[in-house]
From TrEMBL:
Keywords: ATP-binding, Coiled coil, DNA-binding, Endonuclease, Hydrolase, Nuclease, Nucleotide-binding, RNA-binding, rRNA-binding. It holds the Pfam family MutS_V. Homodimer. Binds to stalled ribosomes, contacting rRNA. InterPro entries: DNA_mismatch_repair_MutS_C, DNA_mismatch_repair_MutS_core, DNA_mismatch_repair_MutS_sf, MutS, MutS2, P-loop_NTPase, Smr_dom, Smr_dom_sf. It comes from Pelobium manganitolerans. SMART domains: MUTSac (SM00534), MUTSd (SM00533), SMR (SM00463). Residues 713-788 form the Smr domain. Acts as a ribosome collision sensor, splitting the ribosome into its 2 subunits. Detects stalled/collided 70S ribosomes which it binds and splits by an ATP-hydrolysis driven conformational change. Acts upstream of the ribosome quality control system (RQC), a ribosome-associated complex that mediates the extraction of incompletely synthesized nascent chains from stalled ribosomes and their subsequent degradation. Probably generates substrates for RQC. Belongs to the DNA mismatch repair MutS family. MutS2 subfamily. PROSITE patterns: SMR. This is Endonuclease MutS2. Its EC number is 3.1.-.-, 3.6.4.-. One of its GO terms (biological process) is rescue of stalled ribosome.
Length: 788
């Protein structure tokens, strides 16, 4: 329960909804976003969060969902449900395309059975009813138009109309040429008036041809005449067309009757795709924010790590300002945090961040905070933000605040989160202070949770001495007189009223005069708070410096350990090779000694021979002693490859970017293609070695490209080679995204561009068929291309 109702708007939840709506593909999805509200059921919230997290994983790491055409088939099913009603060709084709999308999405998840269990629950027990598609395919062609042979009578009527139209064209062409030969015709060619093909005749010659005048030019010099012979043929065609229309309606009525039993399952398909669109939009919004799924708890507590306000994050992209993360914890020990500090120091933003993220979590939305964050579930969220004075209700600002305080104290409990901005403002602090202190004591007694911002000193003292409450302050740089927007738990903060007045340029004598008008005790307290703030800033800076030193020391220690391991390994290799070489030398020496002894024996101790052998032995020993020791090859360290690095494939020399590292395997991306390669099949390269074109192509978003891809390309007005080059790029993307067909708008003209394009497309094996658009929608000025 949210109280008051406008709290959602004041916390920014309405803006979150609007941002998600902009990411929906359908009006049905946007309708579901409008209904997003915080929930209190743990299982339902957990399911919604996990669905968004799974879809986020699909967008970032898996093949894109095959969502192409998606229409509101619920309205069409409602129409089909009525006896005697029939769906027209366009409506039936919308059902057909929507079912194709639904079947493709169901197949997508069936191929990944068990990987996305929460998303699979969206279509649990929903069958793929192919018979609906087959019924429609029996009547409509690939463009959604009725097949000429949908029935025997329709085929006969279509043939008869075509034959009659040819006869009309032949006859009127004959009459037109005869009139031209007699100079009866005005400038211009055959034209259509009131749906009839007419000849432009000079007014003075209109009685020379029997027929009916349908129109005349503005000057009256030209009349548009339909010859009598053609008139009768056209009437015959009109009768045939009426008869054909009746047959078309009969076929559509029969087809709608066949689909009527499937209305319930059409509702199910509509609901399934609407939910998919809804979850997809939430996940895209989460990716845009860098949002994650924190740990959801059943009890009431909050632990936010590096949390950021979503709307500030969205605004930071425009103004380029960094958003300072928030770390805060509410639990059984500290249920209410009293935030103090200077104006414009970030107190209200910190409070609103907690409130908005809590509403988002309970609405099933991922939040911009670390995954280690923990968020519980509150049954009630009460908020007092801004000025709610009302002339109609005769409420002043303070009265409006008191009315809310009355409601809070009466209805708060241990599962209530209370958010109050500038607690106690609107009246004399001398009397307002004790009232808000009493309210705070009552809320604490009821075990409520909350974030409260204030400037009241008595509340800071009360929070310091009361169990369940804790002071917190927004850190302020009192040297440069600027806020740092960082929340510090445990100590109250000064309002820095005099310092801020000094910074904006208020006269010094006015500030000094103001200092004399506050009590000595209050001045002493404020000075102590300023000193404390300064000390905290110094401690924080020292802490940051120590953390840097610690990280540097750990880095040096790690490097030292690596070098030590490297030299130890090198030492072991040197000893191993030295021992091996020594053993070899000993073996060679033993063999040489044995051979020398054998020679001496054979020479029967001949003195000269013995001296010669001894000299050879000495020479061999000296040669081994002077033999240089081969330096051991240093052990090559394995090249460190991380996510985001660029590597070069050994077999193709292509540059690819690393998306994921899994032991000895790397998941890499080349443009919009994903692949798995062995680590030892690539070599790491620097960013400078990668061409800019490859970088741009490699970092493009496949999901976004597929979502924005249009099945239509317009090349009118382009030169032949320009048009062909553009179509080549477009065709590659269409094949990559799996589009079954697309159309090329090239215009009619002399037909040169049309012929050039079609001849070029014939060389592509993926192109299975090309044909003109329907005459009513552009005819041979548009080419439909069908892909395998």
């Amino acid at each position: 329960m949210i109280y008051p109702q406008n709290s959602s708007h004041k916390l920014g939840f309405d803006d979150i909804r609007n941002a998600i709506k902009d990411l929906c593909m359908s009006e049905m999805g946007r309708g579901m976003v409008d209904k997003i509200q915080p929930m209190t059921n743990f299982e339902q919230i957990d399911k919604f969060l996990r669905q968004s997290n799974e879809f986020k994983n699909i967008i970032q790491n898996d093949q894109p969902l095959p969502i192409q055409s998606f229409y509101d088939i619920k309205k069409l099913a409602d129409k089909a449900k009525l006896e005697g009603a029939f769906l027209n060709e366009e409506e039936l084709f919308q059902i057909y395309l929507t079912l194709q999308t639904a079947f493709a999405v169901i197949k997508y998840f069936e191929d990944r059975n068990g990987i996305y269990p929460n998303l699979e629950a969206l279509f649990e027990h929903l069958p793929i009813e192919k018979s609906i598609v087959r019924h429609i395919e029996a009547v409509l062609d690939a463009k959604g138009k009725m097949k000429p042979n949908a029935s025997r009578l329709l085929a006969e009527l279509t043939g008869a109309i075509a034959k009659a139209e040819q006869e009309v064209l032949r006859k009127i062409d004959q009459i037109y040429k005869h009139a031209q030969g007699n100079n009866w015709v005005a400038d211009g060619s055959l034209t259509v008036r009131d749906g009839r093909v007419c000849i432009p005749i000079l007014a003075e010659n209109k009685r020379k041809i029997k027929g009916f005048v349908h129109d005349e030019s503005a000057s009256g010099q030209t009349v548009y005449l339909e010859p009598e012979e053609v008139f009768n043929l056209n009437n015959k065609i009109r009768d045939l067309e009426f008869e054909r229309r009746r047959e078309v309606i009969r076929i559509l009525t029969e087809l709608t009757n066949q689909l009527r039993p499937y209305v319930p399952i059409l509702y199910s398909y509509h609901s399934f795709l609407t939910k998919v669109d809804f979850v997809r939009a939430k996940s895209l919004f989460a990716i845009d924010l860098g949002a994650t799924m924190p740990k959801l708890l059943k009890d009431t507590q909050i632990k936010l790590r590096n949390a950021k306000h979503p709307l500030l994050l969205m605004a930071s992209r425009e103004n380029g300002k960094a958003v300072v993360p928030l770390n805060i914890r509410l639990d059984a020990g500290v249920r209410i945090v009293l935030v103090s500090g200077p104006n414009a120091g970030g107190k209200s933003v910190a409070m609103k961040t907690v409130g908005l993220l809590q509403m988002m979590i309970q609405a099933g939305l991922l939040i911009p905070a670390d995954e280690e964050s923990e968020v519980g579930i509150f049954k009630q969220i009460f908020a007092d933000i801004g000025d709610d004075q009302s002339i109609e209700s005769d409420l002043s600002t303070y009265s409006a605040h008191l009315s809310k305080m009355k409601y809070f104290t009466e209805h708060a409990n241990g599962r209530t989160l209370i958010l109050i901005d500038e607690f106690g403002t609107g009246t004399d602090p001398l009397f307002g202070g004790p009232i808000v202190e009493a309210v705070l004591e009552q809320l604490n007694h009821k075990k409520a949770f909350g974030i409260i911002t204030t400037h009241y000193s008595n509340l800071k003292v009360f929070a310091n001495n009361t169990e369940g409450l804790e002071n917190a302050s927004m850190i302020f740089d009192n040297v440069h007189l600027q806020p740092l927007y960082m929340l510090e738990m445990g100590k109250p903060g000064s309002s820095y009223a005099f310092e801020i007045a000094q910074k904006i340029g208020l006269a010094k004598h006015l500030i000094d005069l103001a200092r004399t008008k506050i009590s000595a005790q209050q001045q002493k307290v404020d000075s102590l708070l300023v000193d404390l703030e300064r000390d905290k800033k110094d401690v924080l800076e020292n802490k940051i410096a120590l953390e840097k030193q610690k990280r540097k020391y750990e880095q040096l220690l790690a490097e030292n350990q690596k070098q030590k391991a490297y030299y130890e390994e090198n030492k072991r290799n040197l000893l191993r090779e030295a021992k091996s070489e020594a053993q070899q030398i000993i073996k060679s020496a033993n063999k040489l000694v044995e051979n020398t002894i054998a020679e001496i024996k054979n020479s029967k101790a001949d003195k000269s021979k013995t001296q010669e052998l001894r000299a050879g032995l000495d020479k061999a020993f000296k040669a081994n002693e002077n033999k240089p020791v081969k330096p051991n090859k240093p052990v090559e360290k394995a090249e460190s490859i991380e996510v985001g690095d660029w590597v070069k494939l050994a077999d193709s020399e292509n540059f690819v970017q690393v998306l994921e590292v899994a032991k000895d395997n790397l998941i890499v991306a080349f443009g919009e293609l994903r692949s798995v390669v062995k680590r030892n099949k690539v070599s790491k390269v620097s960013n400078k070695q990668v061409p800019k074109a490859v970088k741009h192509f490699g970092t493009s978003s496949y999901t976004e490209s597929a979502a924005n891809f249009s099945a239509e390309i317009d090349v009118r007005g382009k030169r032949g080679e320009e048009a062909v080059a553009e179509i080549e790029r477009y065709l590659d993307r269409a094949v990559m995204f799996g589009f079954p067909s697309f159309k090329i708008i090239h215009g009619k003209g002399d037909g040169i561009l049309r012929k050039l394009i079609r001849n070029y497309l014939k060389n592509y094996p993926q192109v299975v068929k090309m044909e003109d658009e329907h005459v009513d929608r552009g005819g041979d000025g548009i080419t439909y291309v069908y892909l395998s």
